[in-house]
Amino acid sequence: MTEPQIDVVIADDQDLVRTGFALVVDSAPDMRVVATAADGAEVVRLAAEFRPDVVLMDIRMPRVDGITAARAILEGNAQPPKIVALTTYDNDEYASRILAAGASGYLLKDTTAEGLTAAIRTVHRGGSVLAPSTTHRLVTAHRQHPARPSALLDSFTTREREVFDLIVAGASNAEIADRLNLAEVTIKTHVGRVLAKIGVRDRVNVVIWAYRNGAGPS
After folding, report:
1. Burial (0-12, 13-18, 19+ Cβ within 10 Å), 199
2. Is residue 1 part of a domain?
3. Which of 60-64, 119-123, 171-175, 185-189 has the lowest mean pLDDT?
């Protein structure tokens, strides 16, 4: 079955960067660039106008920064796009702030063309993506300073814990459904309950919460 086309908006204040990312996205058979923006204010406007599936967004931009723009795009939007931050800066503070704002991914601009298109597909399916270096630091910090598992985990049902563990392992809703032999709509319900119980807004923050609370994979 043919994959649905993924509409993408790209925001970066450097023209060559926008052009390069647009060439990569448009070369994929299942996605297209519907608009590009040179600053944070413009991407907020274009996201409302074109209603893309995914927004690729720099963090440091003129007029409105990417973190503020992400909040503006997502807040009050019944069907918000998935946002992937693309940045030169391998910075945990930036990563934490953009993910807390609701982004589904944080990648560095030196990612490969294949890595970029794979990330777009992953977040479009409901998954999350993190730069390998960011993930490595989370894992390293967890192993060096393991936290005591949060008591909140005791409130999970057996099924919720299974879903939680698979989210942390990076599985999409479809992959979890296949693994647990359940309908994807049922998995979405369980994912919603997991998010509500630990008090985060999206899957990528489930992963961060897991590592910070001693529930990451060993």
Report:
1. exposed
2. no
3. 171-175
CA-nearest of 9, 21, 31, 22 to 125 is 31
**Main-chain dihedrals φ then ψ at residue 45, nearest 5 degrees:** -65, -45
Residue 154's Cβ-side half-sphere holds a number of Cα atoms within 13 Å equal to 4
Q: Across-strand partners of 31?
A: 6
Cα torsion at 50, 54, 59, 60 (round to 10°)? Answer: -40
pTM: 0.69
Amino acid 2: pLDDT: 53
Count of structural domains, the chain: 2
Instruction: Copy the structure tokens of residue 179.
Output: 């693994």
Residue 162 lies in a domain: yes
Q: Domain of 30?
A: 6-136
Question: Does a structural domain hold residue 84?
Answer: yes
Q: How confident is the model at residue 1 (pLDDT cuts 50, 70, 90)?
A: very low
**38 and 126, same domain (yes or no):** yes
